[in-house]
Structures are given as C-alpha cells and as structure tokens.
Write a structure and sequence with these properties.
Blueprint (H helix, E strand, L loop, with lengths): L17 E5 L6 H14 L4 E3 L20 H11 L3 E4 L3 H9 L4 E4 L7 H10 L7 E4 L6 H13 L5 E5 L17 H9 L4 E4 L1 H5 L5 H10 L4 E5 L17 H10 L12 H38 L7 H17 L4 H22 L9
Parallel strand pairs: 1-2, 1-8, 2-3, 3-4, 4-5, 5-6, 6-7, 7-8
Helix pairs in contact: 1-2, 4-5, 10-12, 11-12
The chain binds prephenic acid (PRE).
Length: 364
Amino acid sequence: MAEEVKAGGAIDTYRIPLVVAGPCSAENPEQVLTCAHELAQLGCVDFYRAGVWKPRTRPGGFEGRGAQALPWLAQAQQETGLPVCVEVATTTHVRAARDHGIASYWIGARTATDPFAVEELSHAIPPGDGVIFVKNPISPDLELWIGAIERFRRAGHARVVAVHRGFYAADAAPLRNSPRWEVPLALRSRLGDLQIVCDPSHIAGRAELVPGIAQQALDYSFDGLFVEVHPSPQHALSDAAQQLTPATFGAMMRRFRYSVRAGERDLEPDLAHLRGEIDRLDSQILELLGARMRIVQRIGAWKMEHGVQPYHPGRWRQLLTHHLRYGEMVGLDRGFVRNLCHLVHTEALRVQGNMRGDDTQGEV
Ligand SMILES: O=C(O)C(=O)C[C@]1(C(=O)O)C=C[C@@H](O)C=C1
C-alpha cells in the first residue's frame, strides 16, 4: 500500500505491499458490487479479483459467468477505483477483458504448466497493461514457474508478480494444497527482484485455516496476499468453504503480527554468538555426512564385487524406523526426519549407482 496509516479506522497495512482480494467467481452484479465496495472501504486492498472463466477439473460444474460478468467488474472498478484483475487462459479472454477496461490478469496454476499458452498470452497482453500475477504450476516444478515468469518478462511486461497458491499433493490434508514453502523461498533466492504474494485461500481450502497460512506467509517475508473474499461464502457457487467474508477478511488484516523484516535493522550483534554456534554445528553435520558417504562408497564397492544391487529395502526400512524414533527422542519433527532420511538415502543410491556407471537414479 502506498499510504501508511489511513484515517477513519481503516487498516494500517503498510507492511503488506500488495493485497489482492475478491470472490472466487463473479456470480451476479449485486455480489460483485457489494463485495467490491466492502473491500474498498477497508482501505487495505490494492486489486479486486474475481474469476470470470473458471477452469474446472471436470465438466458440468460452475464454469463462471464468462464475458457477461465483465461489465459488472468494469462497473466495480469504476465505482470503487480498485483495479480489477481476472484470470485469463486464452487470447480471447485477454481481448474481452481489455474491451471492458480490465487490464490486470492472473495466470492460473493449470495455464502456468503450459509453456505454449504462457508464451501466447505474454504476447497477447500489451506490455503497457497492469500487473500480471503468475500462479505457481500445480506441481512443485520451480523451473516451470520461473519459465512462465520469464516469458512475461521477456515479452516486455514490467510488473510480473508470482502467486504462491500451494501444490497438489495427495497428503495435503487438512489443507487443500501443500504449501511446500521451500519452493517459493527458492524462487525468492533465484529471482531476488520479484514480488511474491501468497494465496492462503487455495492452500488452506477452509476459511478458518486461511489466517494461519497468511500469517506464515508474512512471517516468511512474502510481499503480499491474494485472498478469496465473498459477501456470503455459504452461498458461493465455487470455493464456498475457503472464502472469507469482507468482515472476517478485515479482522484478519487487523490481527496480523508484523515482524521486522530481515535486513531492515542490523540484528548482527545480538545474533553473532548464536549464528557462530550454528556455523560450527553445520560444519560438523557436513563432515559427518562426508564420512558417512565414504562408508557408503565402501559398501558400494563390496556390492559391486559381489553383484549385489545398491538398494537394500530391508536395511533402509530398519534405518528409517530407527531414525524416526531417535529423532522424536531428540525433539525433531517426524516429517523433517523422514525427508532428511530420504534425501541422504537417495544420495547414497546415486553415489553407489555412479560407481557402477548407472546414469539414472530415481528417488526411492
Ligand atoms: O547398507 C547398505 O546396504 C547401504 O548401501 C547403505 C544404505 C544407506 O545409505 O544407509 C544405502 C542404500 C541401501 O538401500 C541401504 C542403506
């Protein structure tokens, strides 16, 4: 937000640079306008979002109102002054939106997986238009996400913003999508100048879980939020469970806990001692991993000599069971220990495979 503190009890959101909010779908003129006005009154929203063409996994569901919703959104944009953004997946969508003065767009998770579609859209949208929000592809494929962002940048679009909406995962419950925070954090290290916002609605899948995910995103220094808000979520034609009312959205925005962004204040003197300890421990961990890998190589040599395959499921299961129990004893998260074990074991297999001249090792 440009202004820091707003008058009349509006929300001070100066720590959230970019806030996009609005219903999953534009359903009728009344819903579109009520929601836009209520959000505009909060004073903390930068863009009004609403789906017009809804990509549905299977046919027969509510697929959005299509182009007939564009005049309602144009009216909302004109009355509230909030720029509207809609999802576009084809050049026809772009043309129709622009014909109604709508010039900011988001690229959905499904479209972001398709380099041909992204390339075509990047040229169909004139570079002078508003912001292009690029959602992450459905699977946690960082290169594909970066590729989509690069295509828009190369076509001359100056304001491209990444939207983290989580990834499909069979075991995401109780969330709808798995956040896999390491992926947007890796995106941040790869493209340091890119703004990244979080869509907590699609990650959470349930309204009551949205504030927690949004807070986590702010704690991780995300540049903003992309939130589904509906005047009457229980009657919503799509994503009913995950939409907030304008009132609960406003309450969430007021309740956020803001922390100093790393780099805003010099924290070094306070942390130097603790960071020194971490450096020492990290070196020990790496030295131990190096020593472990040398033993793995000796076992690999023995296996080669005796014609035994690298992967030994019984031994691997035994190690995993032991480490999960041991990890719990020393206060480590079970999921973390599991991931770490998989990582180390996969590397052991890669090393043993390489010794035999194999060039394809998958994760086991
Ligand atoms: O114990 C073995 O057989 C090894 O090769 C070592 C190791 C490991 O990294 O611990 C690696 C691969 C096997 O699947 C099981 C265990």
